[in-house]
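Q: Joint fold for the lines below.
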Amino acid sequence: MPHEKIVYIILGPTASGKTAVAIELARYFKTSIISADSRQCFRELNIGVAKPTVEELAAVPHFFINNLSITEEVNARLFEESALAFTQKIFAKSNTAVMAGGTGLYIKAFCEGMDSMPEIDPGIREKLRNDFSKNGIQWLQDEVQKKDTAFWKQSEQHNPQRLLRALEIWESTGISIIDFQKNKKTHRDFNIIKIGLEIPMPALYERINKRVDLMMQQGLLYEVENLLPYRNCAALQTVGYKELFEYMDGNYSIDLAVEKIKQHTRNYAKRQMTWFKRDKDIQWQNGNTPFDCSAFL
RNA sequence: ACGGGUAUAGUUCAACGGCAGAAUAGAGGUCUCCAAAACCUUCGAUCUUGGUUCGAAUCCAGGUACCCGUG
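A: Joint structure:
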């Protein structure tokens, strides 16, 4: 092995059992866990994001969990920087670190790095978002087509998030986002071993349904009620929360809301698998069989 | 039982008597700073039997099913 330091990444779709495996592995190596999850980092979100329990968090030190408020922003870049810093911290005491999570983009950012992009003035970002919500997609498309023509030709032309991203870079620098994309992987000075937990879809769907029922028993509705004032935060555009806001608005019955949560969680799990399937570095393991840590000696 | 209403995709809803559409679910996919997000492709339907008409989801009649009243 070229490096003595190793990061084991436990990944997989939601409800595949990542938390338990990561804790087992971290205990085995007497090390810590970095969460790669775009929602568990928020301290206000607990039941609905299937955060590790208080006992689990106490059993093994965790990073990038409960470190942000829902009023703050997260993104892949921030995750990359934070996770690298946490990794160094862990490596000071151990040769091994464990990462666990289901946010594919964040894991990719950690492993391969994001190209450096210009800082965007928050004012510019906010103005563009306001203009978009006022003037609509047609306006946004016209702007991008007119200004960053090269990007426009190769872009997802109906995807507002991508168009806004390109436009904010253009407005900030006068340079196309394409020119910042180097498409070169950064090589880390540690080894990365990706372990995917795979569960056949029908079985995974069953686990999802059961877990959603359990979340409701644990008081998810109460958690969501308390977050109502923050419903417009990006952090709350989240399965399990959106649907219960609809219930509180009177648009869904409680049964329908729960049904929608299950449905949307299944959709989410499928999207995660679509992402992970492309990554040929992942070693897949059957998530239903007990995890054997000694295989990683 | 009687009166009234409804019947279109798995579901919720469109379609002046003139090419049956959408949302959502299902299937597949994209994705380098919102990623549990956003976006793309695709499968899929006129309850049934007759009638009117050049032409019926649409108009008429019978049947069936469901809903609402009254009993």
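Q: Anything notable?
A: Chain A has eleven helices and six strands. The mean pLDDT of chain A is 95.
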